[in-house]
Specification:
alpha/beta, FAD/NAD(P)-binding domain, five-stranded mixed sheet, 14 helices, 28 strands, 28% helix
Length: 521
């Protein structure tokens, strides 16, 4: 089925409109009951009536119920009917409406008070770089704060080093530590994931069926890598010469391919923006080319960089310096060329190419090595929530990092719908803004800090040299050091490969706020 199924807890999931043909798939996935929350005829003639779905479901041995909820919201009668059904129907249950939102809200209303609840001063959604760092910074300011960090993963990764792993310049095992080891002392780790928001009640619903109440909420679950949006990709990743530095287990395969390739064609891709670490797609190419040049095989390898956009880099000041490396490596740039399909065994890739007139054609290209950067999006629970912006990212004031409609909610990191670069360096500055502003809010004071859009992209143009691109909103250059930022330097390589990884583990995750000056209002 095309719809994404959103798991609320172990017994209940929601999705958008289904058809009769989807029911067999649902039965095969283990669902035992289906609830229709979409009124008949709401979607016109294309929407199947609930009676047809009921008959088809029952023929497959599925229980079926009809609790139509108007777009204006659930009535008290709807809630009571849903509550009664949940006590009777075999689980797991799948409920649907047009998008799944009404079903999710109805479930939240019907089970209110039935879940175990815990209350915290601050709840942090996500235990990645943003979540752990902001938690540490808050506790540094007020050790008495009761903070819960909601994070399902048992492992915590330093992702910026995966590019170096793919270039043979970093040890993979140094990019991961147990989440328990980086969780700030004084914080409570909730090993679960977010299922839904209930901002009117200052509550979040979790995948384990529990809910957490908060005074302030910080949303930083990161983003999702949408591998499935490229046809055939998931079937061939990690084999047939297809790799990506965007996954922990694949970065070593990138280096294996680079190290063993002696000739042929190497394709590197970059999807439509926004993505995290927008320079990473070309960094993989530069490090590979530098190795091939040093091995004396670069002339035997046709290198091509396929970008969905129309520019090599989003901040024009750095393009001339980058172009010198593109030319030195004799790499071909294919602009407005988006990877849409991969056939790994036959080493073939297809790209949708847009010309100057907006016409789109599909081009087929063969490869010996293919480095893929997948399309990226906010997590499903964010995209489907009432707190998202029109593009599906978490709605966030670009200066205060506060939600425009819910003053008690802040966000930072890759999930934000702000126009800054999605990098760990951006998080480093955002952490201070959120921590200071949240503490001020708790005291009833004006929010003191404003985020300037700072982000950094250390562009590894060759092994041993980096162009340290630092910039803010609107592409404004914001260099930390009094040097020409467009020049590749050995000192910047040391910063990227040695200092920043050390500082991440020993500083940033422990509430140390170096190089984080932010302006006031």
């Amino acid at each position: 089925m095309e719809q994404n199924i959103k798991r609320i807890d172990a017994c209940f999931s929601v999705t958008g409109q289904i058809g009769q043909s989807d029911l067999q798939t649902l039965a095969g996935q283990g669902f035992r009951s289906v609830i229709c929350n979409r009124p008949d005829h709401e979607g016109g003639s294309e929407q199947p009536e609930h009676t047809a779905l009921r008959d088809a479901a029952q023929a497959l041995g599925l229980s079926f119920a009809y609790v139509p909820v108007a777009t204006t919201g659930a009535t008290a009668q709807d809630v009571e009917q849903m509550r009664a059904l949940l006590a009777q129907l075999p689980t797991p249950v799948l409920a649907f409406c047009r998008t799944g939102n009404r079903s999710s809200k109805l479930y939240e209303l019907a089970t209110r008070g039935a879940r175990s609840a815990a209350s915290y001063d601050v709840v942090v959604i996500g235990g990645g770089s943003a979540g752990i760092s902001v938690c540490a910074s808050l506790l540094k300011r007020d050790a008495a704060l009761r903070i819960a960090v909601v994070e399902p993963s048992a492992e915590h990764y330093y992702q910026p080093a995966w590019t170096l792993v793919g270039g043979g310049a970093y040890d993979l095992k140094n990019t991961v530590r147990p989440t328990a080891d980086v969780m700030p002392k004084g914080a409570t780790w909730i090993k679960a994931s977010l299922s839904a928001f209930a901002p009117e009640r200052h509550v979040v619903l979790l995948s384990d069926g529990n809910e957490l109440a908060y005074q302030q909420l910080i949303v930083c679950p990161g983003l999702e890598l949408a591998w499935e949006k490229i046809e055939g990709l998931e079937d061939t990743l990690g084999q047939h010469g297809v790799t990506s530095n965007y996954r922990y287990d694949l970065a070593p395969y990138t280096w294996e391919l680079v190290r063993t390739l002696r000739g042929g064609k190497a394709l590197f891709t970059q999807p439509p923006m926004p993505i995290k670490c927008a320079g990473a797609p070309q960094k993989a190419m530069y490090l590979a080319c530098d190795h091939w040049r040093k091995q004396g095989v670069l002339d035997a390898i046709a290198v091509e960089f396929n970008l969905a956009g129309a520019a090599l880099f989003g901040v024009s000041a750095f393009v001339p310096a980058l172009m010198k490396y593109v030319e030195a490596y004799n790499a071909t740039l294919a602009f407005q060329s988006t990877l849409v399909k991969v056939d790994g065994p036959n080493k073939t890739a297809w790209f949708e190419v847009t010309d100057a007139n907006g016409n789109v054609t599909r081009q087929q290209k063969t490869f010996d090595m293919l480095h893929v950067v997948p399309p990226q999006q906010a997590p499903d629970v964010i995209r489907r929530s009432p707190l998202a912006d029109s593009a599906g990212w978490f709605e966030t004031d670009p200066a205060t990092l506060q939600h425009p409609r819910h003053a008690e909610i802040f966000a930072l990191g890759d999930v934000c719908g702000t126009p800054n670069a999605k990098t760990a360096a951006a998080v480093r500055k955002q952490v201070v803004v959120v921590a200071e502003n949240l503490i001020a809010l708790r005291k009833g004071a004006a929010l003191p800090l404003r985020y300037d859009g700072y982000g950094s992209c250390p562009l590894t143009v060759e092994k041993g040299k980096v162009i340290l691109a630092e910039f803010g909103y609107g592409g404004k250059l914001l260099p930390t050091f009094p040097l020409d930022p467009t020049v590749a330097r050995q000192s910047a390589w040391w910063l990227k490969a040695s200092f920043l990884p050390w500082f991440y583990w020993q500083g940033m995750l422990k509430g140390r706020e170096w190089f984080t000056d932010c302006s006031g209002s």
